[in-house]
């Protein structure tokens, strides 16, 4: 399944040099410990956050929540404010890699669906924040995950957006 992408001003990150993507950092409290849900990428099987391109008619946080649903079956409350960002090079079929800046939005997971659009294409697994930091390849994402126990709180994100499979913004 090759992706074709035409970069426009709407698909560029604020710095203008990178393509913009949006990710959901899906998390839960397990006892007093923050756990992070990682998924495998479809191409290499490496551990990543659910992420994707901007979506017309959706805010960045809503796009991140939709990706969490489609790629991981995660349902919950997404913060409206980015908790950080990271860069990576997106491999594109038949083209040069595209440098991407990924804005990350926290999504407090209330439920994991058994059936979701990409369930046959990816694996998902809960990790402690420290374990997750060791599992990902991107240094900036590694630092963001390592800082989670002190850097993540649902109440700090104003105007949370509910994400559920019954809502239009994450229907498959």
In short:
The chain has helices at about 60-70, 130-135, 140-145, 150; strands at about 20-30, 35-40, 45-50, 50-55, 75-80, 85-90, 95-110, 125-130, 160-165.
What report would you give on this structure?
This protein has 172 residues and is α+β, with helices and mostly antiparallel strands. The chain has one domain: Nucleoside Triphosphate Pyrophosphohydrolase. The chain is 19% helix and 38% strand. It contains four helices and nine strands. Strands 1, 2, 3, 4, 5, 6, 7, 8 and 9 form a nine-stranded mixed beta sheet that branches. Strand 1 and strand 2 form a beta hairpin. The radius of gyration is 15 Å and the shape is globular. The relative contact order is 0.24.
> What is the CATH-assigned architecture?
Alpha-Beta Complex
Could you please say which CATH topology applies here? Nucleoside Triphosphate Pyrophosphohydrolase
* Strand-pairing-aware structural class: alpha+beta
Outline type: globular
Rg result: 15 Å
**Number of E-type strands:** 9
Count of distinct structural domains: 1
Q: At the fourth CATH level, what is the homologous superfamily?
A: Nucleoside Triphosphate Pyrophosphohydrolase
How would a textbook summarize the main sheet?
A: 9 strands, mixed
Q: Helical amount among residues, as a percent range?
A: 10-25%
Order of helices and strands: EEEEHEEEEHHHE
CATH class: Alpha Beta
Low-confidence stretches: 1-10, 154-172
Estimate the strand proportion.
35-45%
């Amino acid at each position: 399944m090759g992706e074709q992408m035409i970069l426009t001003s709407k698909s560029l990150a604020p710095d203008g040099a990178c393509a913009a993507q949006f990710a959901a950092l899906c998390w839960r409290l397990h006892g007093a410990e923050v756990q992070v849900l990682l998924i495998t990428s479809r191409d290499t099987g490496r551990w990543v956050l659910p992420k994707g391109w901007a979506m017309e008619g959706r805010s960045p946080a809503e796009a991140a929540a939709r990706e969490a649903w489609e790629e991981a079956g995660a349902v919950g409350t997404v913060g409206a404010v980015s908790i950080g960002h990271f860069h990576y090079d997106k491999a594109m079929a038949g083209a040069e890699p595209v440098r991407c800046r990924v804005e990350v939005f926290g999504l407090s997971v209330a439920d994991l669906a058994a059936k979701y659009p990409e369930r046959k294409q990816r694996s998902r697994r809960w990790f402690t924040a420290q374990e997750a930091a060791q599992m990902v390849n991107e240094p900036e994402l590694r630092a963001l995950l390592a800082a989670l126990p002190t850097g993540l709180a649902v109440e700090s994100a104003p105007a949370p957006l509910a994400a559920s499979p019954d809502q239009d913004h994450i229907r498959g």
